[in-house]
């Protein structure tokens, strides 16, 4: 065991920062998930009017000056908040950290739509005179914006990337961090995913045109994965970024360790722009298990991707059945039922919402599951009330996206005697 603790290819999560529609730190977020507290609320969006959305309420100016916020973006602001919270939580002596050996890897679904829509709306007030177009538009809309804003805020001079992976992007941010740490390109990574999606009317309009925008008289009940009466996606914003390190480095500084990243995979359906493919999703899970050296029977909790779209939920259930069978000790849950679909942030927020299960041995529920669709009839789905678990050692996190991109991340409980946070 002691020799394996010095293995630099072992990668761990040592600090957590997040903002979700139902919590602005891990403790509050986890409490909301266990209490069944939704973060979905009525929301007004340009041209469309009243919709439902998962809306965050964090302090944008806790780590950012008003001037910088005006110049930057909502995605950048979410990223700056989460990154600073993660650094503070990690116990790193930030002044002593080599900024040239620090990388920022943030998954995002799309970027630039918010700023472009805003600028077009502004020039419409002036007869579409482009002379009033903001000179900040270009740096606001480049694809690396969110990660770049973090480097400006924290003085990081190492590499930064945003990873465009649709709704698989939250996992992809962590995967990029693992790879860069193993390649010795960086010594510390800030990684995860963010979303500003609710601030573009286009995403609501597109889902509405597909008949895939959720509606419900009670906003808290609008997001209904696996339920027979689900009627679509609730769009959400948010983010979760974590400090990620090689295990020997974390141990040398006495870091607390939330989890070890032990397996990952990404693949492509190569079938359709939006329709998922269960076989490819199953292959992605199986590849992640193989890389982790695990049997499917060793996974305790699966955090499902299900978005409350009919075919998406069904295909994932087929994939889960293929990989895990009917083992009753497995718990399958869904975080989107609480906060909506946070797009590029979804995978990261859903992962971190489940990590505290290493301590409390509770699988948080899938809420609003009142009439389970028989086509999503997996008995392991945790419905409406948290489930007490005999053990929680491994979590598997699914995130799938448009254009057929799939991602899976597997994390392991780290022993308390060697710096793990949880008993």
What does this protein structure show overall?
32% of the residues lie in helices and 21% in strands. It is an alpha/beta fold and 423 residues long. It has 2 domains: 249 residues, Peroxisomal Thiolase, Chain A, domain 1 (3-Layer(aba) Sandwich), CATH 3.40.47; 155 residues, Peroxisomal Thiolase, Chain A, domain 1. The strands form 3 sheets. Strands 5-4-6-8-1-9-15-14-10-11 form a 10-stranded mixed beta sheet, with helices on both faces. Helix 3 packs across helix 6 and helix 10 packs across helix 11. The protein is globular and about 65 Å long. The model has no long low-confidence stretch (mean pLDDT 97).
Summarize this, please?
With about 425 residues, the protein is α/β, with parallel strands linked by helices. About 30% of the residues lie in helices and about 20% in strands.
Overall mean pLDDT stands at 97
Distinct helical segment count: 14
* The CATH superfamily title of the largest domain: Thiolase/Chalcone synthase
The tally of domains stands at 2
Could you give the order of strands across the largest sheet?
5-4-6-8-1-9-15-14-10-11
CATH architecture of the largest domain: 3-Layer(aba) Sandwich
What percent of the residues sit in helical stretches (DSSP H or I)?
A: 25-40%
Radius of gyration: 20 Å
Give helix and strand order, one letter per element, not per position.
EHEEHHEHHHEHEHEEHEHEHEHHHEEEE
Instruction: Determine the N-to-C terminus distance.
Output: 18 Å
Poorly predicted regions are none
Q: Kindly identify the CATH topology of the largest domain.
A: Peroxisomal Thiolase, Chain A, domain 1
Strand-pairing-aware structural class: alpha/beta
Q: Main β-sheet, in a few words?
A: 10 strands, mixed
Percent in strands: 15-25%
CATH class of the largest domain: Alpha Beta
From the spread of the alpha carbons, the general shape counts as globular
